[in-house]
């Protein structure tokens, strides 16, 4: 397989002392391979960047053909929303906890990158969500998500009332703490804690998972990812927000509708040749471990 990666962007998490050492080793390694290295602008706060170019995120997305993300899944989520539309492939070096997407360990980093940069890798396409907040006929906010879009109560210990339509057809009216719309990637995140199913990443599907519904009849449902989901907010004194990937928040007003659909672009996620999704599930959840 021909190696298509020559301009490498580096993105890292903040506030973790392990990042500095990992980045220094990574930069030394990439220089040794003669590759062009581009750094995210705020990396100057974490390491001595020397003569390496520093680029803001939009410029970095347009300049590199591969981004290596050093951090946890949260760092990957943040990077994916910005880089996926530009078609940049992403690799994750795991300095977080679970590491469903950042699956390369720091101690294996150079060996794994040797294989990937020599053209030995597996590439996955991951679906993203696009969410818009409609106030009447006006779009007042828009954002993207790799894991999930969540409409949820905010700053009050009281349920909210939601009306959910799929492609214009009424699915349910429910009182709950909220509703999670997740991709297959996000099915192992917040949606899983709400009792939602795990969706394999290759499925063309979304999950809808109610959060603490008042009625036990409100159950998770899996739908086609070509569907358009409208979530209407009822009640004159409702306090609610929409949150994308647990990172981007917008306060909703009574009568607002949140429209969620499949993003026009997909994320290119790079793995080592031996990547095994089911093996990751076993390790992260302790499946198959005998007590």
TrEMBL record:
Its main location: cytoplasm. GO terms for cellular component: cytoplasm. NAD(+) binds at residues 73-74, 147-148, 158, 175, 177, 188-193, 247. Keywords: ATP-binding, Cytoplasm, Kinase, NAD, NADP, Nucleotide-binding, Transferase. It is found in: Cytoplasm. It catalyses: NAD(+) + ATP = ADP + NADP(+) + H(+). Its cofactor is a divalent metal cation. Pfam families: NAD_kinase (PF01513), NAD_kinase_C (PF20143). GO terms for molecular function: ATP binding; metal ion binding; NAD binding; NAD+ kinase activity. It comes from the Bacteria. Belongs to the NAD kinase family. Involved in the regulation of the intracellular balance of NAD and NADP, and is a key enzyme in the biosynthesis of NADP. Catalyzes specifically the phosphorylation on 2'-hydroxyl of the adenosine moiety of NAD to yield NADP. This is NAD kinase. It comes from Thiohalobacter thiocyanaticus.
């Amino acid at each position: 397989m021909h190696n298509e990666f020559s301009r490498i962007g580096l993105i890292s998490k903040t506030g973790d002392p392990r990042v500095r050492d990992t980045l220094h080793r990574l930069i030394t390694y990439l220089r040794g391979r003669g590759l062009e290295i581009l750094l995210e602008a705020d990396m100057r706060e974490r390491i001595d960047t020397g003569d390496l170019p520093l680029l803001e995120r939009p410029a970095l997305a347009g300049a590199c053909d591969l981004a290596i993300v050093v951090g946890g899944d949260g760092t990957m989520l943040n990077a994916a929303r910005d880089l996926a539309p530009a078609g940049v492939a992403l690799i994750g070096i795991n300095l977080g906890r679970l590491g469903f997407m950042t699956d390369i360990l720091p101690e294996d980093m150079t060996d794994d990158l040797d294989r990937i940069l020599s053209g030995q890798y597996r590439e996955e396409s991951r679906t993203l969500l696009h969410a818009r907040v409609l106030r009447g006929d006006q779009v007042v906010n828009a954002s993207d998500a790799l894991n999930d879009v969540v409409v949820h109560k905010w700053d009050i210990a009281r349920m909210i009332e939601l009306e959910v339509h799929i492609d214009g057809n009424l699915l349910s009216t429910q009182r709950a703490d909220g509703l999670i719309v997740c991709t297959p990637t996000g099915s192992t995140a917040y949606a899983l804690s709400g009792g939602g199913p795990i969706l394999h990443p290759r499925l063309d599907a979304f999950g809808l998972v109610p959060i603490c519904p008042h009625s036990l009849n409100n159950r998770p449902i899996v739908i086609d990812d070509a569907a358009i989901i409208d979530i209407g907010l009822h009640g004159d004194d409702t306090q609610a927000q929409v949150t994308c990937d647990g990172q981007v928040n917008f306060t909703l007003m009574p009568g607002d509708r949140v429209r969620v659909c499949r993003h026009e672009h997909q994320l290119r996620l790079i793995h080592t040749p031996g990547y095994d999704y089911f093996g990751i599930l076993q390790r992260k959840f302790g499946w198959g471990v005998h007590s």
